[in-house]
């Protein structure tokens, strides 16, 4: 394992001059980002700016070609052991909930702990119920995802990730596929998680959420981080014209 100096100084995720191409297309350009333990970062930017690709690189759903990515002291290299380690530590919630449709809500929550972590079934179920309570839907445990609303399914997806007891949670537009009336029930769960001290990296355009919980807002455009700042300063005093344009379009 490639332990980095960063593990000891409170850094959870570090991206150093990260570059990535899809064929000829330069999708991530010299990305530098440091996420401290317990820090909550909101990433925003126009569609196609590379937000999903960047966070997918952090749990190695995508591979970067240049630079370094270090997650909780483990560098992402082609060493499969490191990738495994990192996947266990990183929870991910997608826009489309990606629940297993043929498994109940509770089975969705216990599958990975049982088969990946080797947790005994009873313990996994107890943990699953704990997290379903945390996202306020324990009464749905025996239902199938198709019987739930979009907001409920997304809360199950969050509970399922938490069951692996990750050190960091990545969210990729978790509310953008939801009907408007369901957005707040998911954001409330995310706010609760933020207040519990979880390190979070959230791609979202929910700027109310950003103001409430983010330590920093990062704006991406054209594969680059254009600027990053505390929410107050980011919204009241954006530096770049591209950021100003973006904010004028979404606020
Ligand atoms: P965002 O999440 O900010 O909307 P993405 O990271 O999804 O942006 O995509 C950034 C760019 O990379 C887009 O132009 C997209 O079309 C392209 N892209 C994303 N995934 C792939 C892929 N697997 N192969 C080729 N191009 C891709
Ligand atoms: Mg995206």
UniProtKB/TrEMBL annotation:
Entry-linked Gene3D superfamilies: P-loop containing nucleotide triphosphate hydrolases
Location of the ABC transporter domain: 13-247
Keyword annotations: ATP-binding, Nucleotide-binding, Transport
Family: Belongs to the ABC transporter superfamily.
Protein's gene: artP
InterPro entries: AAA+_ATPase, ABC_ATPase_HisP-typ, ABC_transporter-like_ATP-bd, ABC_transporter-like_CS, MetN_ABC_transporter-like, P-loop_NTPase
Lineage: Bacteria, Pseudomonadati, Nitrospinota/Tectimicrobiota group, Candidatus Tectimicrobiota, Candidatus Entotheonellia
Protein name: Arginine ABC transporter ATP-binding protein
Signal sequence annotation: none
A GO molecular-function annotation: ABC-type amino acid transporter activity
């Amino acid at each position: 394992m490639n332990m980095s100096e960063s593990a000891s100084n409170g850094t959870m995720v570090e991206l150093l001059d990260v570059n990535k191409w899809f064929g000829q297309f330069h999708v991530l350009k010299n990305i530098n980002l440091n996420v401290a333990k317990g820090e909550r970062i909101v990433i925003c930017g126009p569609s196609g700016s590379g937000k999903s690709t960047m966070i997918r690189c952090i749990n190695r759903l995508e591979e970067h070609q240049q630079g370094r990515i270090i997650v909780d002291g483990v560098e992402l290299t082609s060493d499969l052991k490191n990738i495994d380690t990192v996947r266990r530590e990183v929870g991910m919630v997608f826009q489309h909930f990606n629940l297993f449709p043929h498994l109940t809500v509770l089975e969705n929550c216990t599958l990975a702990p049982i088969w990946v972590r080797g947790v005994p079934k009873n313990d996994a179920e107890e943990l699953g119920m704990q997290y379903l309570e945390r996202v306020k839907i324990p009464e749905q445990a025996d239902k199938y995802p198709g019987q739930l609303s979009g907001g409920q399914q997304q809360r199950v997806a969050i509970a399922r990730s938490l069951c692996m007891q990750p050190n960091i949670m990545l969210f990729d537009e978790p509310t953008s596929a939801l009907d408007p009336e369901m957005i707040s029930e998911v954001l409330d769960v995310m706010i609760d998680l933020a207040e519990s001290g979880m390190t979070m990296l959230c791609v979202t355009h929910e700027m109310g959420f950003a103001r409430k919980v983010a330590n920093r807002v990062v704006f991406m455009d054209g594969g680059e981080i254009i600027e990053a700042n505390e929410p107050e300063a980011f919204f009241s005093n954006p530096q770049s014209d591209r950021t100003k344009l973006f904010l004028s379009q979404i606020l």
